[in-house]
Amino acid sequence: MPETNKRATFLTLGVLAFLAILPPVALALDRPYMVTLANRMLVYALAAVALDLVMGYGRMVSFGHAAFLGLGAYTVGILHHHDVMMTPFLFGWAGSNEALLAWPLAMLVAAGYALLVGAISLRTGGVYFIMITLAFAQMVFFFFVSLIAYGGRDGLVMFSRNSVAGTDILGSRVVLYYVCLGCLVAVLAFLVMVVRSRFGRIIEGCRQNEQRMRALGYKPFVYKLTAFVLSGALAGLAGALLANHSEFVSPDFLSWESSGLLMVMVLLGGLSTLVGPIYGALTLFALEEVLVAYTPHWQLVLGPVLILAVLFFKGGLYGWMTGKRTG
Amino acid sequence: MTQALLRAEGLHKSYGGLVATRHLDLDLHAGEIHAMIGPNGAGKTTAMGQLSGELAPDAGRIVLDGEDVTRLSMPARARRGIARSYQITAVFEEFTVRQNVAVAVQAMARHHFRMVRPARRDPELNAGAEEALGRVGLLHLADEVAADLAHGQKRQLELAMVLATRPRVLLLDEPMAGMGNAEVDAMTRLLEELRSHYAILLVEHDMDVVFRVADRTTVLVDGAVLASGAPEAIRSDARVQAAYLEESA
Amino acid sequence: MLFFIEQLLNGFQLGVTLLLMASGLTLIFGIMHLINLAHGSLFMIGAFVGATVMAYTGSFLLALAGGVAASGLVGMALEYTVLRRLYYREHLDQVLATFGMILFFNELVQIVWGRRPLGVDTPSWLSFTVEILPGVAYPAHRLAVIAVGLLVIVGLFFLIMRTRVGMWIRAGASIREMIGALGVNINLLYTLVFGLGACLAGLAGVMASPLMSVQAGMGENILILTFVVIVIGGIGSLRGAVVGAVLVGVADTLGRVYFPALFRLWADPATADAAGASLASMTIYLVMAVVLAVRPQGLFRAHA
User: Fold this and answer.
1) In a domain, A31, yes or no
2) CA nearest C100 in A: which residue?
3) Of the candidates A61, A128, A300, which has its C-beta nearest C107's C-beta?
């Protein structure tokens, strides 16, 4: 459970304040690309926070969360595509470019797939769960590669960002940034409540001793599946934001590397902390930005960093900064 | 005699060629402590597992208060009032003592999908948890993390969790295992207090405890009932002495 | 019909590659309880080193020896430096550390060998066809892959089930302490077991290299297919791995051939080929979903 000690609260507010003042500062320094970079980070942080709910609190090691992200992105992208092309999508409906419609749909689609994957994979556990979630994510990857009508391997270009209640306020990069930040803060606050609630306690209880939970009268499957679907839906929201950020959707969003990197963000930042994954995402993107300046082969460095982090840096950045070992 | 609260008829379970319980009949009445003893490997824990729903019997049936529960899962049986403790202590190591019991209280209180209000300040859960902790004498440790407890305290905690689910039947698998003399004494007295409120099936190795608290004793050997009756009768039963008591003496 | 038999054999041959991978992964998981994502990297290393030796010497046998040795040595080095520290950690840690290794090796091979895929020629002494059935000529090299793979698997079964070393290995899986007391050097044993698994991956890599393009990331495609094999077969079951490997190999190969043909019935050839090929990639996952829906533990799970 996220600790409510002062240092942790201070750090959380600190990172959120930093993210809040980033756009004006970056623009003042004449570095607009910083806003773009940070926006991308926000979106992945949102997905990583969602992943922490299942991975950190429930120890459901999902190696396929990028699929939910990608499904969310494709939902937005495909609806946009039909809207712009004025071609019928389903039952004569010509899609939509409206965020208030497309984003909830993106969450719904991701949640639906999470329900399917979870219902099959949560009947087993441990290493099996890792392999099955990975395989099902790969299936969606190939599904979108095969959809030639939506660009196949090359992906689908969006001609504009979504409209919000008919207005094109998302056309502004800075507005989009703050919308993403708002979503991240809202999701973070919501999940902090969830893990502290009765429901959250059940999830943590299942992680610690599933047999005990069953003996007390709980059916772990139901609660784990609910958490998994919730996490999938939030990753789908991240996908909807990612589509707007990139103005492009691509099968690469759902690749197994993306799923792996989401897990890396959670681990680097601090497992079972919810705030930690934001630090993790920040660090990973910053590391990439710095290393790429020196070498295109930045993952040659990232790989060993990751191994060392697993071996010697158990609490993640959040644990290190708050002086706590969590998870 | 009143009708049995929990009754097992012809429970049979084998693993490959090894028979764990052999057409076992067993009954348990409200207000009694029924001790189940027997040498290691006699099938006591396997019998417990079948009663609680963790293991499915190959044959036989289990009736709780007139309802056939043989095909019900462990959670379903738990919600009907069958609670169990484990030979190897099963508590939530990362939770505090209070949280451990609160989870048990919540199992019967429902509202599992309540996602907003913090459980830590939930008066319903905390009151129930503190009441159960008071009964086992662990209230003073309510804010300790379970992992930091001594072995005997963990066993007490597990009993508090079992009680907090408001069960009718208690299946206690060696609740005194690994306890010191004073703790055994306290636990024994607690069991005597609990007797009138529950139907208790007690697996126990400590013969002094068994003869002190049990109303009836069943001796299991090789998965089958060797003898069953009042403790005094069991103590003087020649077959039991041959099969079990002498071996353990 | 003849074409079908040929494709079926192609499916078997992919199945054998997957079986070599799956048995290595299962061996390592069964004994050290380690989930090793870098197994795909060991496959890739075998393929790259094999391709290089082949290019310099022209000898496929030397390529085989070089690739297997390279994978084995790299595997043992990884075990010695990193992985043995993870045997008692949770699967999550193992996944992340070995994911780090994947990133590292995929970049490393791009630095050493460049980004262009390497092609490997079929060894000349195997570039003939065998008439396996009247009218069905099949490349000898592919037959050799099937034969060698099966031989190795049989040898592995024999090693685990019949020999003293196998007995140690099986005992080590359950009672580590007793082995320590008996004076067997358990750490060395674990390193050797890991090395054996790595050699199997390397062997699979070299043997498959003439049939696929040798490039960074090739290991993960195979790794994920191998996971599907294990999931279908049931974890820890060698029998399940055999059935799963054949099933996945055949389903994937036949899907690749027949889906585009099916699609051509209503789409233009280019679209049909592209869409059909991708849908074929989905076939095995659908097979997996069906198997899991019916049997959540896979077809032959060894133990619950």
Assistant:
1) yes
2) A303
3) A300
Contact C61, C244 (CB under 8 A): no
State the CB neighbour count (10 A cutoff) for residue B107: 24
- Find the closest chain A residue to C228 by CA distance: A135
Q: What is d(CA A265, CA A277) in angstroms, rounded to the nearest whole number?
A: 5
Within 8 A of C228 by CB-CB distance, chain A residues are: 131, 135
Decide if B106 contacts B123 (C-beta within 8 A): no
Whole-number Å distance between alpha carbons of B233 and B216: 10
Distance CA A200, CA C144 (A): 56
- How does DSSP assign B113-146, residue by residue? T--SSBGGG-HHHHHHHHHHHHHHT-GGGTTSBG
ipTM of predicted assembly, 2 dp? 0.91
Cβ distance C289 to C282 under 8 Å?
no
| Rounded Cα gap, residues C272 and A47, in angstroms | 35
Residues 6+ apart with CB under 8 A from A220: A206, A210, A213, A214
Domains of chain B with bracketed CATH: 1-81+168-249 (3.40.50.300), 88-166 (no CATH)
Q: Give the 3-state secondary structure of C12-58.
A: HHHHHHHHHHHHHHHHHHHHHCCCCCCHHHHHHHHHHHHHHHHHHHC
Q: Are B146 and B93 in contact (CB under 8 A)?
A: yes
Q: C197-223: per-residue pLDDT in tens? A: 999 999 999 988 888 888 888 999 899
Exposed/middle/buried for residue A36 (C-beta within 10 Å: 0-12, 13-18, 19+): middle
Residues of B in contact with A206 (CB under 8 A): none
C237 and C229 Cβ atoms separated by less than 8 Å: no
The tally of domains found in chain A comes to: 1
Contact list in A for residue B74 (CB cut-off 8 A) is 214-215
- Architecture of the domain defined by C9-120+138-294: Orthogonal Bundle (1.10)
List the pLDDT tens digit at each of the 249 positions of chain B.
Answer: 467 899 999 999 988 778 889 999 999 999 999 999 988 888 899 999 999 999 999 999 999 999 999 999 999 999 999 999 988 888 999 999 999 999 999 998 877 788 878 888 888 899 999 999 999 989 999 999 999 999 889 999 999 999 999 999 999 999 888 888 888 998 999 999 999 999 999 998 888 888 889 999 999 888 888 888 888 888 888 887 777 655 554
Q: Encoding tokens for residue A70? A: 């990608």
The domain containing residue A219 runs over which residues? 20-256
